[in-house]
Amino acid sequence: MTKIFNTGLTESDVTPKEVYLNRRQIMAGTGALIAAGAIGGRAEASLTTVPSKYSTMEKPNTLHDITNYNNYYEFGLEKTDPAANAHTLTTSPWAIQIDGMVDKPGNYGLEDILKGVTLEERIYRHRCVEAWSMVIPWDGFPLSVLLNRAGVQPSAKYIAFQTVLRPEEMPGQRTNVLDWPYREGLRMDEAMHPLTILATGIYGADMPKQDGAPIRLVVPWKYGFKGAKSIVKISAVAEQPVTTWNTMAPNEYGFYSNVNPKVDHPRWSQASERRIGGGLFAKRIDTVMFNGYGDLVASLYTGMDLKKNF
Ligand SMILES: Nc1nc2c(c(=O)[nH]1)N[C@H]1C(S)=C(S)[C@@H](COP(=O)(O)O)O[C@H]1N2
Ligand SMILES: [Mo]
User: Fold this and answer.
1) Which residue numbers in the chain have pLDDT < 70?
2) Quick one: CATH architecture of 11-301?
3) What strands lie across the sheet with 132-136, from one edge to the other?
4) Among 140, 158, 166, 287, which has the highest number of CB atoms less than 10 A from its own CB?
C-alpha cells in the first residue's frame, strides 16, 4: 500500500522551509496565545501547511474547490448551492450542548471548548471520499479531547451529533427533503479514535459556512456524509443513534458507512472516485479500503461483516 502518513518525518521534512521557519517565529512570539488555545487567531494563518502525524501527504485541493463543491442540504441540493446560500447562517456566538451519559453535561460556548486544545493536537489534513474526493487541510482537534473533558461514562456506547435547527436561517429546513435536524452517530471507539476530529477551519482561516461553520465532524475513513456540519449537540448514549441518511434510505446508507470499494451503493459503484480539481478528462482513481487509513482503523472492525454492517 502507498504510504500516506508522515509518521517518522519531522515537520521540516514535509513543510516548505518558509512556513516551517514562520511557525518557529510564531511559536516564539505568541507562545502564550497558543498555549491559551486561541484557535482561529489570525496569527496562525501561516501554520496551514503543517500537518499532524495523521495527515495525508497528498496535495490539498484549492480553497475554491473546497468551497464550491459541497453537500449541505440545509442550503439546497446542488453542489454549488451551499456557496450561494450559506451566508444566512449566524455562526457567532455558538454553543454546543453536551449531554447524555457524561460527568459534566452543559451548554458550552465554542470559545471555551477551544481553550486548552494544544497546538500539537490541532493541525490535520485528510482526504474525504464519496463518489468524488478532495484533500482538505482542516484545522481541528480530536473529538476525544472534548469527550474526555466532558467525562464520558462507561455505560455510554455511542456518540450522537446534531446540526443546528434554524429554519429561519436555513432555507432547506423550510422544506422536507430531510428529517431535520441533520443527525449523525459514531460507535464509541470510532468517536475516540485520534483520526476523528472536530474541524473549525480550513487553510488556517475560520471554517467557511458552506463547509459547516463554525464546527463540524470529520471522520476520514468514512464516506463524506458522516461529517455532520454546524454541530450544536453532542450526546453520549447507550444505544446506536438514529442518523439522517440511515432513516431516509436504510438500504442505501448504513450506520457505519466505512469507505469500502468492495461494497457498492445500490445505485452506484464505490470502487473508484473522481478527484475534484483534476479537470474534465482526469481519470477516476481506485478507492482504497478505509480511504487508505486501514493501518489505523481496520482493527476497530475485526470480526464484523462489513457487507452487512455497511
Ligand atoms: N448538516 C449537514 N451536514 C452534512 C450534510 C448536510 O446536508 N447537512 N451533508 C453531508 C454530506 S452528504 C457530505 S458528502 C458532506 C460534504 O461535506 P463538504 O461539503 O465539506 O465536502 O457533508 C455532510 N454533512
Ligand atoms: Mo454525501
Assistant:
1) 1-50, 116
2) Alpha-Beta Complex (3.90)
3) 126-129, 132-136, 272-275, 285-286
4) 140
